[in-house]
Amino acid sequence: MSINTEILHANILIVDDEIANVKLLERILQINGYQNVHSTTDSREVEGLCNATEFDAFLLDIRMPKINGFEVMENLKTHFKDDYIPVLVLTAQTDQETHLKALEYGAKDFVTKPFNTPEVLNRIYNLLEVRLMHKQVKQQNLVLEDKVKQRTKELYHTRQQVIQKLGLAAEYRDNETGNHIIRMSKYSYLLALSYGLSEQQADLILNASPMHDIGKIGIPDNVLLKPGKLDAGEWEIMQSHVTIGGKILSDEDSQLMNTAQQIALHHHEKWDGSGYPKGLQGEEISIAGRICAVADVFDALLSKRPYKEPWPIEKAIDLIESEAGKHFDPKVAPFMKQILPQVQIIMTEYPDE
Ligand SMILES: [Fe+2]
Ligand SMILES: [Fe+2]
C-alpha cells in the first residue's frame, strides 16, 4: 500500500459537541477520499471508542461539556502510553494561552474555527503522515528485536554445541561415552542451584563443565588407553590432563572460559587436600570445581567401565556421602541425594549406548 492509500485508510476520530461541525468535517474528509472517519459529539465516549479502534488521528474540539479537550488529551496520554499521540486541535479560541495549553497537553497542531478547507486537509494529511511513519518505525523495531532474539538464541545454542563437542572429543579418547559429559554437566547445574548459586552461575557451570577432561587430548594413547594398572610415571602423565586442560582453556577473558578453566584445574582436587594437581584444600578449590567433582565421580560410579560394572544408585550415594569432608565439600555432597529424582530423568534421557 502506498503512503497515500494508507493515509486515506487511516482511522480518524472527530470529537466536537457541535453536530454541525462534525458533519462538515465528515463531509470534507469523505469527499477527499478518507475511508474511515468516525465521530462523536460526546467526549465521554472517546475512551470506549479508543478501546474498540486504534485511531491514527483525533480532530479535537477544546470547549466541550462534561470532559473538555484538555481532559480528553490527558486521558489519551494514559491510553497511548509512550506512543505518538496524533491530536489536531480545532478551536474557536484564538488566544495564545489556549494554544500554549493545548501544546502542553500534547496537541500536535491547530486549526482555528471557522476553518479553511484546504488548510485543514493539509494539516490532517501531515499529521497522519507522521503518525504512519511512527507506526512503521515501531513495526520495524519489533522485527529487528525479534531477529536479534533469534540470532542470540542461535549463538547460544551453537556455543553450547561447540563446547559439548569439544568435551566429547576428549571423552572419545577415554573409555567414557559422550553422554557422560552431558549428564555430569546437568548434575553439576542442579547441584549448583541446590547449593544456592544463582541461575546465572549455575548456567555457567552447566556450559563450562563439559570441558573438564579436555586435557586428555594431550595424554598419549599408551597411557590413556592402557588396560592395566598405571605405574607411577604413567599415573603422573595421566594426572597432567588437568594442567593441560587448564592451558587449553586459558588466555580467554570470557567468564565461561574462566569457569571452564577452574573446573578443568580443580575437578580432581579433594576437600581434605589429598587431590591433584596442587593438593588444594577446602575453599581454596573453586566452588565450580567442588561441585563438578561430586557430579563427575557420581556419574562415573554409575557407568560401566571395562574394569567395573555400574554401581547401584544407593551404593553410589552412600559413597558420595561417606566422602563428604574427605574427597568432597561437605556442604555440596548431601545435595546429590536431594537431586536424585531429576538425576533419574537425566539418566534415562542420556543413557550410555
Ligand atoms: Fe578428569
Ligand atoms: Fe569426567
Task: Record the SSE blueprint.
Layout: H1 3-8, E1 11-15, H2 19-31, E2 36-40, H3 46-52, E3 57-61, H4 69-80, E4 87-91, H5 96-104, E5 109-112, H6 117-173, H7 178-195, H8 199-208, H9 221-224, H10 232-239, H11 241-248, H12 255-266, H13 287-301, H14 313-322, H15 335-338, H16 340-349
Q: How many strands, which pairing sense, and closed or not: the largest β-sheet?
A: 5 strands, parallel
Share of residues in helices: 55-70%
Overall pLDDT level: 92
Radius of gyration: 35 Å
Distance between the termini: 58 Å
Order of helices and strands: HEHEHEHEHEHHHHHHHHHHH
Strand percentage: 5-15%
List the bound ligands. fe (ii) ion
Main sheet: strand order? 2-1-3-4-5
| Tally of DSSP helical segments | 16
Poorly predicted residue ranges: none
Shape: rod-shaped
| Number of DSSP-assigned strands | 5
Structural category: alpha/beta
Provide key terms for this protein:
alpha/beta; binds fe (ii) ion
Question: In summary, what is this structure?
Answer:
The protein is α/β, with parallel strands linked by helices and 353 residues long. It has helices spanning 3-8, 19-31, 46-52, 69-80, 96-104, 117-173, 178-195, 199-208, 221-224, 232-239, 241-248, 255-266, 287-301, 313-322, 335-338, 340-349; strands at residues 11-15, 36-40, 57-61, 87-91, 109-112.
